[in-house]
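Thread: quick sanity check before group meeting

JM: Hey all, I'm pulling together slides for Thursday and realized we never actually wrote out the predicted structure for the chain we discussed last week. Dropping the sequence here so it's in one place. If anyone has concerns about the input, flag it before I start.
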Amino acid sequence: MEHGDGTADLDINWDDVRVFLLVARLSSFRAASIESGVSVNALRRRIEALEHKINAVLLTRSAKGVELTEEGRKVEETAQAMLEQARALARLSSKSKRGLRATVRVGATEGLGAFWLVPRLVDLFERAPGIQVDFRNEMRVPDVSGLEVDIAVQLERPADEGLKVVRLGWLHIVLFASADYISRHGIIETSQDIPRHRFIEINAPQIQSGALKEELPEDDSRSFVALRVNTASAQVLAATHGAGVTALPTYAQLVTHKLHHVAREFSLKRDIWLCYHPDIVEFRHMRQAIDWIKSSFDQEKYPWFGERFLSPEEIDHLAAKRGLGTLFSGFRDEHKL
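JM (edit): ok, ran it. Output follows.
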C-alpha cells in the first residue's frame, strides 16, 4: 500500500523493533533472552517478522555472536530515533491534565511487587493523591529502555548505560517449610538434608536456580525437585500448604507465619536495583513514585534489605517491635492463605 508521500505502509510492530534493538545492543540472542525472559526462538521469530516487513536481512551470525548488516545498522539508527520520539511523546502524555490522574508504570518481580510494594501503596497514594499506578508484576526483566514501564525494581542490573540505576539494597534468600510439612517429614537441620525432602523450585527469569544448586550437596542431581512453578505466589501457596521446602526472602514470615525457617546455615544474597530513564524525573509524579520506592527499601526502617544478614526470627522480632506487622495483615490471616 502506498501513501500520498510515496512511502509504504509497512505496519511495523513496535514490539518487534524493541526486540531488534535489544538483540543489537547485546549482540547475542541468548543474552537478550536472559534479559527479556523471552525464549531465543521467540526472539528469532520477532526478528524474522521485522526482516520480512522491511524485506532485508538485519542480523548475521559471527564468531563474536550476532552482528548488524549494513541494512541492520540503518534500521538500528532509525529505530533509536523512533525510540527517542516515543520517549518524548510519553513525557508529553505523562503531564497531568485537569480531571485526569498522572500515570506511572512500575515493573517489579512478583515477590518484591506483590508481597512487598503493593501492600505499601497506600503510602504513595497519601503522598500523591492524584497519581495512578499501573503495576506490572512479572518475573521477566521489564523493558525500561523500550518504554514498557517507567520505573523498574529488578534483581538483574540492566546493561543499558543510558538508564539511571540505583542499588536499593540486598535480598537475602533462605529455606522455609510449613509446620505441617515438618511434622510429617521431619526437621530439616541443614542444607545437607534437602535432597531427602520434596523441594519446590521457582523457575523463572531473574531467579538464579543455578546458584541454589551450587550451594546444595555436591551429589545432588536435582532429583528431589517435586514441584516447579514460575510465579512467587504459586511458590508461597505451595509451601504454606505443605507441598515441600522452598527458598524465599528472609522477610517471608512477615507475609505468613505458616512458614518456618529451616536449614539455618543456608543463605544466598541478591542485589535489588531501581532503574528508570533519567528524563522522567522532570515530572513530579514520577519523582514521587521513585521516592516512595526508595523509602520502601529504607535500610534504617527495613534493615533486612541491608547487606548484613538478618535471620527471619530477628526480622519478625524487629517488625513486631516497630509495629510493621500491620502492613501485611491481609496476607498474615492464616485463613486466607
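AS: nice. The domain at 100-337 is CATH 3.40.190.290 (D-Maltodextrin-Binding Protein; domain 2). Residues 1-8, 329-337 have pLDDT under 50 and may be disordered.
JM: adding both to the slides.
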